[in-house]
Protein: N-alpha-acetyltransferase 40
Organism: Lentinula detonsa
Amino acid sequence: MPTEEEKSLSEGSETVRRANTQSAKQLALALQSAVGLPDAYDCVFWLADELLEDTRAQLWQSIDGNMRELKVAYINSSMGWNPPEKRQELFNSLGRFILLSPVNKPDEVAGYSAFRFEHEAEEDILYCYELQINPLHQRKGLGRFLMNLLEVIGRRTKMEKIMLTVLDNNLAANKFYKQIRFQLDECSPTYEDLDDENGTEKVDVDYQILSKLLT
């Protein structure tokens, strides 16, 4: 169940409320405009509450098992690693999922994105909570395709920007997001890193909030 804060984010504007009423089938219409999906893969959409248990297990395994380096990055960060909280965030009922599977193995998750529609700081945003590609399927353009698809969805639903959080020590992710033109968002803790001369200490964090405008 969404917390009061999450519910506030999901109902903060009429645009976001409309986006959150869209079915998986309606969201999948974005595939008509997205580019870059390799022929060897299929793409499907799911709302969080509609996910099958086996699919949920695979999605969680991509973080808790397959992506061991990412798990270590969380453990060593100020955000910490709390499996129950992470599962709750991942499978929140407001979440939407894009799943990629090999054409010849439709039950195998090769990669996925988990996202939500939210209204925060007077802006309508598509927040990308997870972008995961199974190691066996990396370097095939799947991550770039998923981000392109999120942009299409964001524009179709009238969102103003895409946002995401990335750890400083996740060097590969930082490089990837820079390549696809994400920038430090003004709500990121280090956007205005004031010095002591202004009476404000520098913010000591090990993550950044990035964004890309859609308008």
